[in-house]
Amino acid sequence: MNITFERVTEPAQIETVARIAEPIWHATYDPINGVDSTNYMIEQFQSVPAIHRQLESEGYVYYLMLASGKAAGFIGLVPHKEGKMFLSKLYVADEFHGMGLPHAAFDFIVKLCRAEKLDKIYLTVNKRNHHAIEVYKHFGFYEIDAVVTDIGCGFVMDDYILQKDV
Known about the structure:
It comes from Anaeromassilibacillus senegalensis. This protein is an alpha+beta fold. It has 5 helices and 7 strands, in the order βαααβββαβαββ. It has helices at 11-33, 35-45, 48-57, 101-116, 130-138; strands at residues 3-7, 61-67, 70-81, 84-92, 120-126, 142-152, 155-165. The longest helix is centred in the first third of the chain and has 23 residues, at 11-33.
């Protein structure tokens, strides 16, 4: 299978990212936070307007992951945040699990870091998202801190901050 990465710049690509994100976020976060909180998070972070805002004013760069030309997932990055690469999002659609997309994504991100002369990647992950934590640790991430963030409407994110040396 050929896995490629396509930088998201067009409205149709943004819509694809939002379409891929919604079921993944519900499958991941409904059991952790409940449906209402997940809907709120999607609206704040993965809706079409939220992605536009991130791209236009928050320094984000999105890439669609294509598996043999089909949109299979996406990554969202903020280069040079705190002198590192911030990995905000890495999601793979269910039908593409087990095909090596996370491995390909981390290889791609490491190449971007090297091109940008960044020696670390960091991310936040919900403390109760045990599967994601194990995946990140498998790829060399380690815990450096924890943070609780109030994002509004009574919703609080309780996360670990993980980092990987490049």
